[in-house]
Design brief:
single chain, about 350 residues, Immunoglobulin-like, 2 domains, five-stranded mixed beta sheet, 9 helices, 9 strands, about 15% strand
């Protein structure tokens, strides 16, 4: 998973799109608390602790939600095809959000999902509370009024079919939104609307990249002949020339072993003979990522490994050529060459 990109998305568009409602709720409950303290003769104007309570409660609730969403997908044993479709839709939705932020056309605004009005009213009513725990309560309740980017992240958490990965996706995304709730109001007030417009444009381009990457990953995971290889990232750290040399030097092996780690597959290029049984051993080591969901789309092979696990796949290749293997989200991949 591109968790760093997800963090940046939370830091930019995730915070900005949620700030209008959730930031307003936080400001309201802080104002109510300050009013209560003034009535008691206290005039400290301390907003750090209410803000921390809001953010930490929000972070905890969304992490738990991501865990449940990831586990829910796993419990349902969602098929690979459904996972790919969900990821592709999430990618398209993020692209729509980006196009709306970039003001490409007003029509994209109508495609954004809005929470039910009755839930919004219920949550807003709680902002009038002067209770000490009101900020934390509001942080938890924000799961009922997610912004469009949050919904896309929730879809990614479900499509991961992994409780830990789902929790990681939501944790990193919400963590990215945290600094904006501390400083974006003051920053935009000082620098004015011109800064906010530029910031939204930057956020739009970042979300556009994430959306295209997600949609392209779904195409890769589905074995589509139409993908965007130019935006894929070689996480092995090898250059194209190094990768070519490695491929030429690979020996034929009918009993290959692939080490699955959090950052990909090693080796990511193997050679086998046509018409002979291939016994492929998959060994995962601390693979807390979508790499643990191993797929060979052209053969319909699907294996979900635990973070530390060993499984065997046997098959007989019938055609000469190259077959791609990848994770369930198309983020990590490799090649099986049949000679």
């Amino acid at each position: 998973m591109n968790l760093w990109v997800i963090f940046i998305t939370g830091l930019t568009v995730g915070g900005l799109t949620c700030l209008a409602v959730q930031g307003g709720l936080l400001a309201s409950v802080i104002a109510a608390k300050e009013e209560e303290e003034i009535e008691k003769g206290i005039n400290t104007k301390n907003t750090i602790f209410p803000t921390l309570a809001f953010i930490l409660a929000k972070l905890a609730s969304y992490t738990i939600l991501g865990f449940i969403l990831g586990a829910f997908g796993g419990i349902l044993n969602i098929s690979s095809r459904v996972q790919i479709i969900m990821q592709f839709i999430a990618g398209l939705y993020m692209i729509v959000i980006a196009l709306d932020l970039l003001k490409i056309h007003p029509i994209f605004r109508y495609a954004l999902i809005q929470p039910p009005r009755f839930l919004t009213r219920i949550v807003k009513n709680q902002s009038r509370s002067k209770d000490l725990f009101a900020p934390a309560f509001l942080g938890i309740m924000t799961i009922f009024i997610p912004c469009g980017t949050t919904l896309a992240m929730e879809a990614l958490a479900i499509s991961s079919v992994n409780a830990l990965l789902g929790a990681a996706i939501m944790f990193v995304f919400i963590l990215g939104t945290a600094p904006l709730f501390f400083g974006i109001g003051l920053l935009t007030g000082v620098l004015g609307d011109n800064f906010r417009g530029k910031f939204l444009k930057l956020a739009g381009f970042i979300v556009l990249y994430l959306g295209i990457t997600s949609a392209n990953g779904a195409l890769v995971a589905g074995g589509s002949p139409i993908t965007l290889p130019q935006i894929s990232i070689d996480l092995s750290g090898a250059s194209k020339n190094q990768a070519q040399v490695t491929q030429n030097d690979v020996a034929v092996n009918q009993n290959p072993e692939i080490d699955i780690k959090a950052n990909g597959y090693f080796p990511n290029y193997i050679k086998v003979k046509k018409g002979e049984t291939v016994n492929l051993t998959l060994k995962s080591t601390d693979a807390f990522s979508c790499a643990s969901a191993f797929r060979i789309p052209s053969l319909g092979i699907s294996k979900n490994l635990q973070p530390n696990d060993t499984q065997l796949i046997s098959f007989i290749p019938t055609q000469i050529g190259k077959m791609q293997f990848n994770c369930s989200m198309g983020m990590y991949k490799g090649i099986i060459e049949v000679i």
